[in-house]
Amino acid sequence: MPDDLHIKANHHGFATRVAHVSRPGTRSHGFVNGGVHRGSTVLYPSCEARGEINDKGFDKHALTYGTSGGPTHFALEDAIAEIEGGTRTMIVGTGLAACAVPLLAFLKAGDHCLIPDTVYGPTRRLADGLMAGWGIETTYYEPTVDAAGLEALMRPNTKVLYTESPGSHTFELQDIPALAAVAHARGAKVLMDNTWGIHHYQPFQHGVDVSIQALTKYVGGHSDVLLGSVTMNNEDDWKTVASAGRFMGHYASPDDCWLALRGLRTMAVRLKHQEAAGLEVARWFETRPEVLRVLHPALPSHPQHALFKRDFTGACSLFGVVFQPDYDMARIHAMVDGLTLFGIGASWGGFESLALPTTGYVTRTATGAEVLGGPAVRFHIGLEDTADLIADLEAGLVGLSR
Ligand SMILES: *Cc1c(COP(=O)(O)O)cnc(C)c1O
């Protein structure tokens, strides 16, 4: 058996790749999976070797001290880099840290940053809080802005174009290649929160410089681990981001990395099931009179469906449902409270279904309901039998009109 199976993106299918990537080969006494390597101190063979090893602290797989990672981290880093099609990945303790570290790595006092108005809420809090306090100015832009519109927002000190496509509450898609071209012409870095797209969106083929994943979602897959990844497309950007992360002491537990590797092995089948189940439920919602519209990029009714067809190879199982405006939020809450198979909770990507009323994650209005046309709920479809989920939802919708 070779030490590492050499998995090539264009050669094998995705399920094959996640089953084999970063396996330990002969280094694991014949066991299929690698171990959990816990550790702070790394022992040097001699005093002289210590200097040489520390000089190579940013080399791939360099073992210098626990904070720069160990074999379990490296296995996960290599696996995520392969999935995202990037050069090198840094693993951090949460998805939010994966958003924060590259923002803070590429921005300094006096710089300007562009963030989509639909951005993940905690990323907005970072920009409005710490970043603003440090003299980094943010402009929130419409996620569907075109190249000319973005051009008008660029300033000489714009250093980062942050993107997230689709927005994880309102599901607008962004024309990343067009926007990245504008940013790159002005020397700005393009960061993308690619959690929704996972392997269905290859960020570096679309002009992204830094791709962010909340591994907490489908990679972990079981709602029992928090973890984030930041993947870069060249060694220089990797060094910039990894330095910032290390300056701030970012680290992830090797036990959590091991859980993420374990989740990864089954992610392809889970995603395949959840994509189909999510679409089945979304299409069912579209037939219901209680529903104004369904926010799912893979449905032809989605306003940017053409971008989905152009750029994505598939979907995950997170989407939104906008109800008729004559239902007030109190009724929607009562309906969600009455569901028996859907938990009410944040996060997604686990084996279990979730429902979460959509709240004001947009600056355009206080509630989001004005933007969307009615009260909305975000649904995550898990691994349950779809017929059971639909029966549960049907009972809820019948109750809504009573
Ligand atoms: C959940 C999520 C994050 C943050 O991940 P955590 O691990 O929960 O911190 C970042 N971006 C998006 C789009 C998310 O849904």
Ligand set = pyridoxal-5'-phosphate
How widely separated are the two ends?
64 Å
By CATH, the superfamily of the largest domain comes out as Type I PLP-dependent aspartate aminotransferase-like (Major domain)
Strand order of the largest sheet: 1-7-6-5-4-2-3
Q: Give the proportion of residues in helices.
A: 25-40%
Q: According to CATH, what is the topology of the largest domain?
A: Aspartate Aminotransferase, domain 2
List the helices and strands and how they pair.
Elements: H1 14-20, H2 47-55, H3 71-84, E1 88-92, H4 95-106, E2 112-116, H5 121-133, E3 137-141, H6 147-153, E4 158-164, H7 176-185, E5 189-193, E6 210-214, E7 228-232, H8 235-247, H9 254-286, E8 291-295, H10 305-311, E9 318-323, H11 329-338, E10 343-344, E11 354-357, H12 369-372, E12 376-380, H13 386-400
Parallel strand pairs: 2-3, 2-4, 4-5, 5-6, 10-11
Antiparallel strand pairs: 1-7, 6-7, 8-9, 9-12, 11-12
How does this model look, in words?
It is a single chain. The chain has 13 helices and twelve strands. Helix 7 links the parallel strand 4 and strand 5. The longest helix is centred in the C-terminal third of the chain and has 33 residues. The N terminus is likely disordered. The structure holds pyridoxal-5'-phosphate (PLP).
